[in-house]
Amino acid sequence: MQLRLKGRVSKELHDEMQYYIDNLPIEDILAGLRFAYSRYRAKEQGRLRVGRRSKVKQEVAMLSREQIEWRLGHWDKMVKVYREKGYSYPTIYRIKVALLDMLKK
Q: What whole-number distance in Å separates Cα of residue 44 and Cα of residue 24?
């Protein structure tokens, strides 16, 4: 099967696409393209919140117990900081829940 792509594509990208077409079963290629297309459409329509969970993990990953206690004790200040970073209120709430869970351990 020969690959024809619209627009300007570098030779490296064309060769990589051709490699996958030559070496993967067509069912797997179509399944991957369907997934990628659905994800692309959801992102374009604003229904996909890429990276939210990683933001929560990033905020709570390496905190000491004292840091967790301070953040929870000064939560109003932390909400202001998180809003300035552009986090939504649901994400901020998830950060608080993660901090409380870490404090229980």
A: 28
